[in-house]
Amino acid sequence: MEIKFIAANPQLQQFIQGYIFTTTPANTTNHYVSFANVNLCLSIYKENRISYNRENNFNYVQAGGGQFCTSRLYGFHTQRFYAHINGSMEQLSILFQPGALSFLTKKPYSELIIDENIFSTLFTAKSLFMCEILFSSLTISAKITKLENFLFGMFKNSETNRQMTWLVNHLRLPRVTDSLRNLAEAMHIDNSTLRRRFLDHTGYTPKLFMSTQRFRHALKGVTNKHNLTELSFDLGYYDQNHFIKEFKKFTSSTPSSLSSSISVIDDSLLLLRDNLTA
Protein backbone atom coordinates (compact mmCIF):
# COMPACT_ATOMS: atom_id res chain seq x y z
CA MET A 1 0.00 0.00 0.00
CA GLU A 2 1.33 3.42 -0.94
CA ILE A 3 0.17 6.63 0.76
CA LYS A 4 1.05 10.18 -0.24
CA PHE A 5 0.00 13.29 1.70
CA ILE A 6 -0.02 16.71 0.03
CA ALA A 7 -0.75 19.88 2.01
CA ALA A 8 -3.45 22.19 0.71
CA ASN A 9 -2.71 25.51 -0.97
CA PRO A 10 -2.25 28.13 1.81
CA GLN A 11 -5.21 30.07 0.40
CA LEU A 12 -7.42 27.03 1.02
CA GLN A 13 -6.06 25.96 4.39
CA GLN A 14 -8.84 27.72 6.26
CA PHE A 15 -11.06 24.99 4.84
CA ILE A 16 -8.80 22.08 3.87
CA GLN A 17 -5.74 20.56 5.55
CA GLY A 18 -4.60 18.50 2.61
CA TYR A 19 -5.10 15.49 0.36
CA ILE A 20 -4.20 11.82 0.72
CA PHE A 21 -3.62 9.59 -2.30
CA THR A 22 -3.76 5.89 -1.44
CA THR A 23 -3.25 2.97 -3.82
CA THR A 24 -3.05 -0.78 -3.34
CA PRO A 25 -2.05 -3.35 -5.98
CA ALA A 26 -4.26 -6.18 -7.24
CA ASN A 27 -4.22 -9.57 -5.52
CA THR A 28 -3.12 -8.14 -2.17
CA THR A 29 -4.77 -7.63 1.20
CA ASN A 30 -3.93 -4.45 3.09
CA HIS A 31 -5.08 -2.95 6.34
CA TYR A 32 -4.27 -0.08 8.66
CA VAL A 33 -5.57 1.65 11.77
CA SER A 34 -6.06 5.38 12.28
CA PHE A 35 -7.17 7.38 15.29
CA ALA A 36 -9.75 9.96 16.32
CA ASN A 37 -9.31 13.44 14.88
CA VAL A 38 -11.38 16.61 14.69
CA ASN A 39 -11.13 16.93 10.92
CA LEU A 40 -13.44 15.15 8.47
CA CYS A 41 -12.16 12.92 5.71
CA LEU A 42 -14.05 12.76 2.41
CA SER A 43 -12.76 9.73 0.51
CA ILE A 44 -13.40 9.13 -3.18
CA TYR A 45 -12.87 5.67 -4.69
CA LYS A 46 -12.55 4.36 -8.23
CA GLU A 47 -14.66 1.29 -8.92
CA ASN A 48 -14.54 -0.06 -5.39
CA ARG A 49 -17.32 -1.43 -3.23
CA ILE A 50 -17.39 0.10 0.24
CA SER A 51 -18.91 -1.36 3.38
CA TYR A 52 -18.59 0.85 6.46
CA ASN A 53 -19.82 -0.31 9.85
CA ARG A 54 -19.98 2.80 12.04
CA GLU A 55 -20.71 0.83 15.22
CA ASN A 56 -17.28 -0.83 15.26
CA ASN A 57 -15.42 1.69 13.03
CA PHE A 58 -14.61 -0.97 10.43
CA ASN A 59 -14.33 0.03 6.77
CA TYR A 60 -14.10 -2.74 4.17
CA VAL A 61 -12.99 -1.89 0.63
CA GLN A 62 -13.40 -4.49 -2.11
CA ALA A 63 -11.80 -4.26 -5.58
CA GLY A 64 -14.19 -4.12 -8.53
CA GLY A 65 -17.95 -4.24 -8.72
CA GLY A 66 -18.54 -0.64 -7.66
CA GLN A 67 -19.56 2.46 -9.54
CA PHE A 68 -16.89 4.43 -11.36
CA CYS A 69 -16.88 6.94 -8.51
CA THR A 70 -18.08 6.26 -4.98
CA SER A 71 -17.47 8.33 -1.86
CA ARG A 72 -17.82 8.32 1.91
CA LEU A 73 -17.36 10.81 4.73
CA TYR A 74 -15.42 9.58 7.76
CA GLY A 75 -15.13 11.24 11.15
CA PHE A 76 -16.58 11.68 14.63
CA HIS A 77 -15.20 8.34 15.88
CA THR A 78 -13.59 8.27 19.31
CA GLN A 79 -12.03 4.82 18.99
CA ARG A 80 -9.64 3.22 16.52
CA PHE A 81 -10.72 3.26 12.88
CA TYR A 82 -9.97 -0.01 11.05
CA ALA A 83 -9.57 -0.17 7.27
CA HIS A 84 -9.36 -3.45 5.35
CA ILE A 85 -8.67 -3.38 1.61
CA ASN A 86 -9.05 -6.51 -0.51
CA GLY A 87 -7.41 -6.15 -3.92
CA SER A 88 -6.65 -3.01 -5.89
CA MET A 89 -7.82 0.37 -4.67
CA GLU A 90 -7.38 3.91 -5.93
CA GLN A 91 -8.50 6.49 -3.39
CA LEU A 92 -8.27 10.24 -2.94
CA SER A 93 -9.18 11.72 0.43
CA ILE A 94 -9.81 15.39 1.16
CA LEU A 95 -9.14 16.38 4.78
CA PHE A 96 -11.57 19.15 5.68
CA GLN A 97 -10.88 21.48 8.57
CA PRO A 98 -13.40 21.38 11.44
CA GLY A 99 -16.54 23.24 10.39
CA ALA A 100 -15.52 23.60 6.72
CA LEU A 101 -18.43 21.56 5.37
CA SER A 102 -20.89 23.97 6.98
CA PHE A 103 -19.78 26.49 4.31
CA LEU A 104 -20.81 24.10 1.52
CA THR A 105 -24.13 22.74 2.73
CA LYS A 106 -26.82 23.36 5.32
CA LYS A 107 -27.47 19.63 5.74
CA PRO A 108 -26.80 18.39 9.28
CA TYR A 109 -23.72 16.25 9.87
CA SER A 110 -25.97 13.35 10.93
CA GLU A 111 -27.16 13.15 7.30
CA LEU A 112 -23.78 13.78 5.66
CA ILE A 113 -22.00 11.02 7.59
CA ILE A 114 -24.39 8.33 6.29
CA ASP A 115 -24.55 9.63 2.70
CA GLU A 116 -23.18 6.90 0.41
CA ASN A 117 -22.35 9.35 -2.37
CA ILE A 118 -21.30 12.42 -0.39
CA PHE A 119 -19.03 13.84 -3.11
CA SER A 120 -21.99 14.10 -5.49
CA THR A 121 -24.20 15.57 -2.74
CA LEU A 122 -21.73 18.35 -2.00
CA PHE A 123 -20.61 19.14 -5.54
CA THR A 124 -23.71 18.11 -7.55
CA ALA A 125 -23.40 17.92 -11.35
CA LYS A 126 -19.69 18.77 -11.38
CA SER A 127 -18.75 15.76 -9.26
CA LEU A 128 -18.61 13.18 -12.10
CA PHE A 129 -16.44 15.46 -14.23
CA MET A 130 -14.13 15.98 -11.27
CA CYS A 131 -13.95 12.23 -10.64
CA GLU A 132 -12.87 11.63 -14.23
CA ILE A 133 -10.01 14.08 -13.71
CA LEU A 134 -8.98 12.66 -10.33
CA PHE A 135 -8.77 9.11 -11.69
CA SER A 136 -7.17 10.02 -15.01
CA SER A 137 -3.55 9.46 -16.02
CA LEU A 138 -2.56 12.98 -14.98
CA THR A 139 0.24 13.40 -12.44
CA ILE A 140 -0.76 13.87 -8.80
CA SER A 141 0.42 17.49 -8.98
CA ALA A 142 -1.80 18.17 -12.00
CA LYS A 143 -4.77 16.50 -10.32
CA ILE A 144 -4.33 18.63 -7.19
CA THR A 145 -4.12 21.81 -9.28
CA LYS A 146 -7.42 21.03 -11.02
CA LEU A 147 -9.08 19.94 -7.79
CA GLU A 148 -8.02 23.10 -5.96
CA ASN A 149 -9.24 25.32 -8.81
CA PHE A 150 -12.56 23.54 -8.43
CA LEU A 151 -12.58 23.96 -4.64
CA PHE A 152 -11.62 27.64 -4.87
CA GLY A 153 -14.80 28.13 -6.85
CA MET A 154 -16.87 26.35 -4.22
CA PHE A 155 -15.47 28.27 -1.24
CA LYS A 156 -14.88 31.73 -2.71
CA ASN A 157 -18.38 33.00 -1.94
CA SER A 158 -18.59 31.38 1.50
CA GLU A 159 -19.64 33.61 4.35
CA THR A 160 -17.23 33.03 7.23
CA ASN A 161 -18.79 32.48 10.65
CA ARG A 162 -16.17 34.53 12.46
CA GLN A 163 -17.27 33.60 15.96
CA MET A 164 -17.20 29.86 15.35
CA THR A 165 -14.02 30.03 13.27
CA TRP A 166 -12.29 31.85 16.13
CA LEU A 167 -13.62 29.35 18.68
CA VAL A 168 -12.49 26.33 16.64
CA ASN A 169 -8.98 27.77 16.29
CA HIS A 170 -8.85 28.61 19.98
CA LEU A 171 -9.95 25.13 21.08
CA ARG A 172 -7.30 23.53 18.86
CA LEU A 173 -4.48 25.03 20.92
CA PRO A 174 -2.34 22.52 22.85
CA ARG A 175 -3.66 23.72 26.20
CA VAL A 176 -6.96 25.54 26.70
CA THR A 177 -7.52 26.92 30.19
CA ASP A 178 -10.69 28.94 29.52
CA SER A 179 -13.97 27.50 30.72
CA LEU A 180 -16.79 27.31 28.18
CA ARG A 181 -18.75 29.71 30.37
CA ASN A 182 -15.97 32.31 30.12
CA LEU A 183 -15.73 31.76 26.36
CA ALA A 184 -19.50 32.18 26.01
CA GLU A 185 -19.37 35.42 28.01
CA ALA A 186 -16.53 36.72 25.84
CA MET A 187 -18.66 35.97 22.75
CA HIS A 188 -21.74 37.61 24.38
CA ILE A 189 -23.84 34.44 24.19
CA ASP A 190 -24.99 31.93 26.80
CA ASN A 191 -23.61 28.41 27.28
CA SER A 192 -26.45 26.58 25.55
CA THR A 193 -26.24 28.87 22.50
CA LEU A 194 -22.49 28.36 22.26
CA ARG A 195 -22.91 24.58 22.46
CA ARG A 196 -25.70 24.53 19.84
CA ARG A 197 -23.88 26.79 17.38
CA PHE A 198 -20.61 24.88 17.78
CA LEU A 199 -22.38 21.55 17.27
CA ASP A 200 -24.09 22.85 14.13
CA HIS A 201 -20.79 24.23 12.81
CA THR A 202 -18.48 21.27 13.51
CA GLY A 203 -20.65 18.26 14.35
CA TYR A 204 -18.95 18.10 17.77
CA THR A 205 -19.95 19.28 21.21
CA PRO A 206 -17.27 21.67 22.55
CA LYS A 207 -16.33 19.14 25.27
CA LEU A 208 -15.79 16.24 22.84
CA PHE A 209 -13.94 18.52 20.42
CA MET A 210 -11.54 19.65 23.15
CA SER A 211 -10.85 16.14 24.43
CA THR A 212 -10.29 14.82 20.88
CA GLN A 213 -7.98 17.69 20.00
CA ARG A 214 -6.01 17.24 23.21
CA PHE A 215 -5.66 13.55 22.37
CA ARG A 216 -4.20 14.48 18.95
CA HIS A 217 -1.58 16.66 20.66
CA ALA A 218 -0.87 13.77 23.03
CA LEU A 219 -0.57 11.27 20.18
CA LYS A 220 1.89 13.53 18.37
CA GLY A 221 3.93 13.93 21.56
CA VAL A 222 4.01 10.17 22.16
CA THR A 223 5.07 9.57 18.57
CA ASN A 224 7.91 12.07 19.00
CA LYS A 225 9.05 10.26 22.19
CA HIS A 226 8.34 13.20 24.52
CA ASN A 227 8.66 12.63 28.25
CA LEU A 228 5.23 11.57 29.50
CA THR A 229 5.40 13.59 32.72
CA GLU A 230 6.26 16.78 30.83
CA LEU A 231 3.69 16.00 28.13
CA SER A 232 0.98 15.45 30.76
CA PHE A 233 1.75 18.85 32.33
CA ASP A 234 1.99 20.70 28.99
CA LEU A 235 -1.42 19.42 27.87
CA GLY A 236 -3.16 20.13 31.16
CA TYR A 237 -3.74 16.60 32.46
CA TYR A 238 -3.84 16.24 36.26
CA ASP A 239 -0.91 13.85 36.27
CA GLN A 240 0.68 11.07 34.23
CA ASN A 241 -1.91 8.51 35.36
CA HIS A 242 -4.71 10.76 34.14
CA PHE A 243 -2.88 11.21 30.83
CA ILE A 244 -2.50 7.44 30.30
CA LYS A 245 -6.13 6.78 31.25
CA GLU A 246 -7.43 9.34 28.74
CA PHE A 247 -5.00 8.12 26.07
CA LYS A 248 -6.27 4.55 26.44
CA LYS A 249 -9.88 5.72 25.96
CA PHE A 250 -9.01 6.74 22.40
CA THR A 251 -6.50 4.03 21.48
CA SER A 252 -7.13 1.01 23.74
CA SER A 253 -3.34 1.05 24.24
CA THR A 254 -0.84 2.63 26.59
CA PRO A 255 1.47 5.33 25.17
CA SER A 256 4.55 3.12 25.61
CA SER A 257 3.04 0.17 23.72
CA LEU A 258 1.89 2.36 20.84
CA SER A 259 4.79 4.76 20.33
CA SER A 260 7.01 2.40 18.34
CA SER A 261 4.20 1.17 16.09
CA ILE A 262 3.04 4.44 14.50
CA SER A 263 3.92 5.59 11.01
CA VAL A 264 3.99 9.36 10.55
CA ILE A 265 2.69 10.26 7.10
CA ASP A 266 2.04 13.85 8.22
CA ASP A 267 1.22 15.56 11.54
CA SER A 268 -2.47 15.13 10.67
CA LEU A 269 -2.05 11.52 9.49
CA LEU A 270 -0.67 9.02 12.01
CA LEU A 271 -1.30 5.35 11.27
CA LEU A 272 -0.45 2.09 12.95
CA ARG A 273 2.35 0.46 10.97
CA ASP A 274 1.55 -2.41 8.72
CA ASN A 275 2.29 -2.64 5.00
CA LEU A 276 2.62 1.13 4.47
CA THR A 277 4.98 3.06 2.21
CA ALA A 278 5.08 6.84 1.94
Description:
The protein is built from 11 helices and 11 strands. It has helices at residues 109-112, 118-123, 126-134, 140-155, 162-171, 180-186, 191-202, 206-223, 228-234, 240-251, 255-258; strands at 2-7, 16-24, 29-34, 40-46, 48-53, 58-63, 69-74, 81-86, 89-96, 262-266, 269-272. It has a 5-stranded antiparallel sheet. It has a 4-stranded mixed sheet with strand order 3-8-6-5, with no helix packed on it. 32% of the residues are buried.
What descriptive keywords fit this protein?
single chain, 278 residues, alpha+beta, Jelly Rolls, Arc Repressor Mutant, subunit A, 2 domains, five-stranded antiparallel beta sheet, four-stranded mixed beta sheet, 11 helices, 11 strands, 25% strand
Give a quick precis of the structure:
This protein is 38% helix and 25% strand.
CATH topology of the largest domain: Jelly Rolls
Largest sheet: 5 strands, antiparallel
Low-confidence stretches: none
Q: What would CATH call the architecture of the largest domain?
A: Sandwich
Indicate the multimeric state: single chain
General form:
globular
- How large is the radius of gyration? 19 Å
Q: How much helicity do the residues have?
A: 25-40%
**Topology pattern, helix = H, strand = E:** EEEEEEEEEHHHHHHHHHHHEE
State the end-to-end distance. 9 Å
Spatial order of the strands forming the largest sheet? 1-2-9-4-7
Task: Specify the CATH class of the largest domain.
Answer: Mainly Beta
Q: Structural class from helices and strands? A: alpha+beta
Number of structurally distinct domains: 2
Give the beta-strand count: 11
Note the beta-strand portion. 15-25%
Q: Quick check: average pLDDT?
A: 88
Task: List the total number of helices.
Answer: 11
